[in-house]
Every structure is written in C-alpha cells, then in structure tokens.
Amino acid sequence: MKYKSLLVTGGAGFIGSNLAVGFKQKFPQLKVYALDNLSRCGSQLNLPRLRENNIKFIRGDIRNPKDLALNFDLDLMIECSAEPSVVASLDNPLYIINNNLIGTVNCLELCRRQKADIVFLSTSRVYPYPVINKIRTIETSTRLKWLPAERIYGWMANGISEDFTTCGPKTLYGATKLASELLLQEYIANYRIKGVINRCGVIAGPWQFGKVDQGVFTYWMLAHYFKRPLKYIGFGGKGKQVRDLLHIDDLFSLIDLEVANLSKVNGQIYNVGGGYKVSLSLAEATKLCQQITGHKIRIGTEFKTRPGDIAVYLTNNKKITQELKWEPQKAAPVIFNDIFNWIKNNQSKLSRL
Ligand SMILES: NC(=O)c1ccc[n+]([C@@H]2O[C@H](COP(=O)([O-])OP(=O)(O)OC[C@H]3O[C@@H](n4cnc5c(N)ncnc54)[C@H](O)[C@@H]3O)[C@@H](O)[C@H]2O)c1
Questions:
Q1: What is the pLDDT of residues 124-158, one digit of tens each?
Q2: What pTM was estimated for this model as a whole?
Q3: Residue 330 near ligand 1, beta carbon < 6 Å
Q4: How many CB atoms lie within 10 A of CB 263?
Q5: Beta bridge partners of 247
Q6: CA nearest 199: which of 316, 25, 110?
Q7: 2: burial class by Cβ within 10 Å (0-12, 13-18, 19+)?
Q8: Hey, is 348 helix, strand or coil?
Q9: Nearest-angstrom CA–CA distance, 24 and 22
Q10: Which helix or strand (DSSP H or E) is residue 313 part of?
C-alpha cells in the first residue's frame, strides 16, 4: 500500500463503512478516516464498528466546504457519500443536485488541494432508462429476459457495457452521477490527480440499511425476517423485474485492486456488477428469502411502474475482468445468507430502526 491516509466520504454508509473497515483490516498502518453527515437512517449504527476498527469518524457534510477543510494530510479518497435513491431524486431535485453534484465538486476540490487520488462510486443509472426499457424481453415463469436477437451498441443479452449510450433521461440521480464523472475526468486531466470511476449495479450485503426505494435485496430479506408485508411494483406486478447484484466483499476486492493499480486504471470507467450469473428477479428473491428464513409473507401488487424504473439491468463486467483479472466470487444465495446472518446477529438494533 503506497498510500498513507485514506478518507472515505459517506464512510458511515453501507459501502463506505465496509470499504473503510476492509482497508483498515488489510492495511493496519493506513490511517483511515470516515466522513458522514449521518443523513441515511441506520448509518449511525455503523459508528461503533468504525470505532472498534480504529477508524476516525468525522461528522461532516460534503455540501459544506468548511467540513472538508481537513487538518491532516490526505493522499487517497474513496467517494461514497450520496443520496443513492432514484425516488428521492424525483421528489427533491435541488437536494439531489446539491448533495450529489456540488458535494462531489467539493470533494474534488479537496483532492486538488491535497493532490489526493480518488476512487469514485458511480452508478449504472447513468444509462438512460427509456433506451434500456426498449430492449425486447420475453417472460419466463420467474423473470423477464432480454431477447438475444437485438443489435444495440454496448449491449449483449448478458449485459450492458461501458459503450452503451448515456444519451437520454436517466433520472436526476443518474444525471448528477454522470455530471460528477465528467468533472472528475477534468480534475484528473488538469490537476495531476489520479482517479477511477466505477459504474456499479446493485451492491448488497451486511450493514446495508435497505429501504423500499434503495437497497432492495436487503430490504426484501429484512421484510421476510421481520414478517413485514411487501409489494411487487410495476412491470405487470408479478415481481419479474431483474437486477444483477454484487456482494460488498467482491466490491472491496475490486477497489483494493484498483488502488494498487491506480496508474494502470487512471481515468478509466468500469461497469461493475454481479453480471448475468449473479442476477435475480424479485420473485426469485422471494423464493430465496422463504427458503432461508422459513417465513412466507404477504406480497401485494402495485401495477403502476414507477417513473424512471427499469425492467431488466445486467452488468457486462468484461472490461474490468480483462484489465484487472477480477471477477465476482459470491453467488446470490451466499449474498442472501450473509444478509440473513447479519440481521440475526443484530436483530434488536435493526428491529428498532
Ligand atoms: N448500494 C448500491 O447498490 C449502489 C449502487 C450504485 C452506486 N452506489 C453508489 O455508492 C455510493 C454509496 O452508496 P451506499 O449504498 O453506501 O449508500 P448509503 O446511503 O448507505 O451511504 C451513503 C452515505 O453517505 C452519507 N451522506 C449522504 N449525503 C451526505 C453529505 N452531504 N455529506 C456527508 N455524508 C453524506 C449518508 O449518511 C450515508 O451514510 C453512493 O455514491 C451511491 O450512489 C451504490
């Protein structure tokens, strides 16, 4: 590890806390700081974990440049602080633009001042939903499946690659992330900092405080565990919409590799996800949750598809796999079992949330 100090913004969140803990455990000599405004319900439960792992917590808001006036030297940032909900972005555009775009600019300014390198957590939501939803599908007994006959640049039946168009509406969440990516590339080109962009699909695993509009697979397991009702929303109301998912440990291995090879991946954009092999429809997720928890809960139906929602999304990981020899290791049942065990071990804290 050539870096001496790491700041994880959004460091009390799901991805941020897991990466902060992962880096500190692997590189004990690395100074690790986690900055967070604790706006996400549940993030406060990560504070004891950070403390136990010798990670210094800074209560701060990336929208406020004063909170980023650090009194220590920094040479690496992992930017994980965002409002990650598509639905929240629809309800409150100015909030999302301030948080996810102006906040990122403040983080980039910090990197420029300190000559710190940066790993940026972007999203598959930079790809436009109307174009994705135009890809023809067939309905099997448990899921929607892309038809392999289509010829679309950057698309194959096993996933969407970095060459897929970014033109068209992508929700304000996706737009603020794409705008952040563009600015990050300018900072890399002009201010001699190195950086890499990861366009992640759904990431899942322990310490994700899943809610109805974000962190869907953890939310699904939480609802089964605590016997709370669920709903299949949109796309015919049968739960046949599909996402790939990636275990947080697989994301950590990837980012660890990127940090070790930052000169090689500098300026690159990668699509990152579980791919076709680690994908599920909601109906399939229900079955898995039933098998693991032994609980069968009521699942209602809402026929109306939410604005900006996507029927099928699968990541094509080929670029990152070829360049860094990284591949997802954890299958969907392993991910769901890990989430289940985390809930079981933290049942009383989680039931109060
Ligand atoms: N989880 C996923 O499936 C997923 C998929 C694609 C991309 N991402 C991206 O990864 C990053 C982390 O997502 P996550 O799943 O850990 O979400 P999360 O909500 O669990 O974590 C984000 C953290 O950032 C904090 N935060 C929000 N606004 C802040 C601000 N203005 N100042 C300081 N802290 C702030 C929140 O309190 C929270 O703890 C986000 O950028 C998100 O867009 C996540």
A1: 999 999 999 999 999 999 999 999 877 899 999 99
A2: 0.98
A3: no
A4: 8
A5: 204
A6: 316
A7: exposed
A8: helix
A9: 6
A10: strand 312-313
